[in-house]
Amino acid sequence: MWVKNPTGRIVEVPDSFWAEKGLESQGYEKMDIQVRPEVIGADARRRSYDVSIIIMAWNRLEMTVKCLDSIFEHTSCDYELILVDNGSKDGTPEYFKELAEKRPNITLVLNETNRGVAGGRNDGIKAAKGRYLAFFDNDSTVGPDWDKIMLEIFLHNPSVGFVGRLGTTFFDFNQPGMRLMSPENDPIQVDVVSGGATMIRREVFHEVGLLDEWGMGEFWHEDSELCLRASLAGWHSYTVKFPWEHKYHSTYKDEKGKAWFDKFQSNLDYIKKKINKNNTITVYRDYHGDDCMESLCICTTNVVAKLREKGWNVIRKPTKKIVPMGLRICTGNVMEYKGKQHWWVHQENDVCQKSWLEPLKEADLINPPSPFCGENLIRSGVPKEKVIDLSPNGLDKNIYNPKVVPAIQFADTFFLFANGATQPRKGTDVLLKAYFEEFTGSDNIVLFFKDGNYGHRKNTQKALADLRSKHKNPPSVIYEWNYWTPEKLAKYYRRAAVNGAFVNPHRSEGFGMCILEALCCGAPVICTGWGGNMSFCTPENTELIKSKMVHSTFHNNDQEPYYGKDEKPKWAEPDKAHLKKLLRKVYNNNGKGLKKRDKEARRLIKIYDWEAVAERFHKYFLKLKNHA
Question: Helix 513-520 crosses helix 594-608 at what angle (to 10 degrees)?
Fold first, then answer.
């Protein structure tokens, strides 16, 4: 179940804990959270465990066997075992494979090279599904009740993020060595714990990110850096005594020898520069999982991850409680740095709701997803000087690119692809009418609708049925409502590139991520020539549908009554007749001009890849950081 602890954090705990631990009497509150599969992503739908035990190995098979045997013998909680091999040459990978065949709760991560402590453990973290993540060096062993003792500390203090066997209460950046303390009986609050025997609450990684493998190299103080970074977000570290024995990093005292230990002081210096408030950005956006397919989450998660790689401490907090509801829905995130709030506000209609103007005064600056949205906000009365051109919208060049292998389906049919929620703003009704008027079952074409989150499934299915019943020889249409991975989406975009087209006759887009994704996969694109997509759509790379301005129903209807009765927002009504001509044009072209489109795709990728997007944020915040 999900509960809100006394500090306001929402965490997941086993259902039995509510009664067993008396959580209600401790100030916990049950949360009615329903996982929406089409939004949350596959990660959140997988089987979860109480604890994910992550063991990383780099050779020393004999010690690893003893470590794992102790875990098998002395672990009583519901657990999974993540085994990470960092390029061992002594038979460790083969041993791990044998174990995985015998035990269904084992997941393997087999690296070809040594990714270091931070890199290897990060691989384990990404694979883990537990509520808590436990880490042990492979040259250590555990004894009876180790898991019960560690878990008990978390349940008694909702702000505990780390529980370790060893730690220190004073972290001095200038001392030549760090003395680790072992508690005798009661738990002791410390500044940092040793990563060789520690358990970490999953929410810590959601809030502050993974171990820093980008700035700290293979070894030394990656555990201390994480503890100190998490302390900026309010998480505490404790040591507690439990049965555990360790061989003191004997795993690393071989051919690398001195190279591992040379990083001791340089990493301390790096941490000293990194862990401070001037290097900390707080981002307010609910966390639904790294693979959440909601566009606002995709942008936030990727920009946050890249900023962390660039050395920023980025703390992710729950979404701010913004009112009115219309503004909350259209605020993708709030980024706070050095006391200034940057609101990522979408505005698809030509003007925003009047009720937004007062709460928007709380924002120091507004960074809309596109200049189009910025112009709409300024037109509505937002001061021009508050609107900056700093959009977090982008894509992953490793997924969306012209080298994607097309989906094998529809290779012999013209593939007209429409991806996005089927709702009035997306122009689904216009597309269906134009398609059924322009084509018949005799044409070698299929319209494939990929619907999902926020789509009007029942309305779309009814419209399809009505059009089919009225058409003597209806053209082929496939409608699917399902969760797709980004990799699968890219394959279908590429199928449209080879022998088809992507179509989006929207009435308004704040940015148009699916349009950009299709272009970066080389697909011919038909879309409305109005909206945020005009940041990257041109007459040279897109078939632009003519339109006229009409009164909008977006956030202005019985189900979404966010505009006042006297407010008359407008959006673009796509010209159905022109859309029909463009559909016939791309059908007759049948994929011609692929090389030219692929060249344009590569150009757009350089601008909108997450690395490029994050670099713009990095330079912006760096300028603020250096400004006295």
Answer: 130
Q: Which residue has the tokens 């302390």?
A: 231
Q: What's the token pair of residue 104?
A: 């269904």
User: Which residue, 155, 117, 138, 173, is CA-closest to 26?
Assistant: 155
- Give the integer Cα–Cα distance in Å for 157 and 155: 6
Question: In which region does residue 311 sit, left (phi positive, over 0), alpha (psi from -120 to 50) or beta (all else)?
Answer: left
Q: What single-letter DSSP state applies at residue 473?
A: S
Residue indicated by tokens 């709702």: 423
Q: Average pLDDT in the 429-450 region? A: 97
pTM of the model: 0.86
One-letter amino acid for residue 231 of the chain: S
Q: Please report the DSSP string for 273-338 in residue order.
A: HHSSGGGEEEEE-----TT---HHHHHHHHHHHHHHHTT-EEEEEPPP--SSHHHHHTEEEEEEET
Orientation of helix 61-74 relative to helix 92-102, angle to 10°: 20
Quickly tell me which residue has 């970490």 as its tokens: 200
Q: How many residues does the chain have?
A: 628
| 3-class SS letters over 387-440 | ECCCCCCCECCCCCCCCCCCCCCCCCCEEEEEECCCCHHHCHHHHHHHHHHHCC
Domains and CATH numbers, the chain: 1-34 (no CATH), 44-275 (3.90.550.10), 279-386 (no CATH), 414-608 (3.40.50.2000)
Of 264-278, 314-328, 576-590, the least confident: 264-278
What amino acid is encoded at 575 in this protein? D
- List % helix, strand, coil for the chain (3-state, nearest 5): 40, 20, 40
Tokens found for residue 188: 């002791």
Phi-psi region of 162 (alpha: psi -120 to 50; beta: other; left: phi over 0): beta
Task: Find the distance separating the first CA and the last CA of the chain, reported in whole Å.
Answer: 47
- What pLDDT, in 10s, does the model give residues 404-415? 999 999 999 999
